[in-house]
Amino acid sequence: MPELPEVETVRRGLEQLVVGKTIIGTEVRWEKTISGMAPELFNQALAGKRILNIKRRGKYLIFNFTGELSMVSHLRMEGAYYTVPEGTQPGKHDLVTFHLDDGTDLFYRDTRKFGRMVLIDSDKVMTVGGLATIGPEPTEQTLTLDYMIDEFKHSKTRLKPFLLDQKHIAGLGNIYVDETLWQSKLHPKTPANLVSVTELAELRKNIINELARATEHHGTTIHSFTNAFGGAGGFQNELQVYGRVGEPCLRCGTPLEKIKVAQRGTTFCPVCQVERSKDD
After folding, report:
1. Is 264 an active-site residue?
2. Residue 260 is among the residues annotated as catalytic for this protein
3. What percent of the chain has pLDDT over 70?
4. pLDDT recorded at residue 205
5. Does any domain span residue 215?
6. Is residue 273 part of a domain?
7. Do 55 and 169 share a domain, yes or no?
8. What are the tens digits of pLDDT across the range 203-246?
């Protein structure tokens, strides 16, 4: 699933490719992609609308149009946007086409068909799905240590699922949770309320820095992620634990192990990241 760095990379690409252009019409080939609206109504609502800007909140893309209309788009597992010359025949997995006024089409491709788009009044965007309860962005300004201390101390949830829950911190997924927990020497099964203030400060720093670095490298391509220009990310070459099971820990040399935590494959170092319980 694209995480914050990948979604931000897509947003930046789309900003260059489609902002300022007007939608002539749309074609929807998989109705479930557009939540709560028939294809003809989706087309009617967007035809003639100019794309003002594209924002991001966590893993959500927010397209803002003229007429105080917005579209919230969640890429889920394998959603992707890219532009092609008008008249290009859509492929099997191109589920939605946005015909633009400059002689190009914006395709939404999704091989798994899990991605969703929601049209909504611009002033109600933050009521859509997980946006209503989403946590702060992982930046120096928005993710404060005081917030993390208060958020973590009230939960006995293990760190891996705790950090994957977008209610706590926006944008983290499987890759960057594994990476930042390894960097912070925290075991993925350690309960959130057992992490010390010193450890939280280190975890906060690592989350902010890792997501910023991954964004600079245009995200991580493991299976199918591409940016809006069709290119792959570059951060897969920088990963320290994710995808390296059986290889030596870059800190102590111990072979990395993989376990399941909350049904998610999780790579960690059994020496550097020691599991902690209430009795420790």
Report:
1. yes
2. no
3. 92
4. 98
5. yes
6. no
7. no
8. 999 999 999 988 888 776 554 445 555 555 556 677 899 989 99
Exposed/middle/buried for residue 136 (C-beta within 10 Å: 0-12, 13-18, 19+): middle
Residue 21 sits at φ, ψ, to 5 deg, of -90, 155
User: Domain check: are 56 and 166 in the same one?
Assistant: no
Residue of 199, 264, 270, 276 with catalytic role: 264
Catalytic residue among 11, 59, 109, 244: 59
Please give the Cα distance from 218 to 60 (Å, whole number).
17
- The reported pTM is 0.91
60-70 pLDDT per residue, tens: 999 999 999 99
Residue reference for tokens 């019409």: 25
Domain limits for position 228? 145-268
Query: Do you know the residue count of the chain?
Result: 280
Show the low-confidence residues of the chain (pLDDT under 50). 223-225
d(C-alpha 179, C-alpha 216), whole Å: 16
* Category of 104 on φ-ψ map: left (φ > 0), alpha (ψ -120 to 50) or beta: beta
What's the CATH code of the domain at 41? 3.20.190.10
Tokens of residue 77, six digits? 């597992």
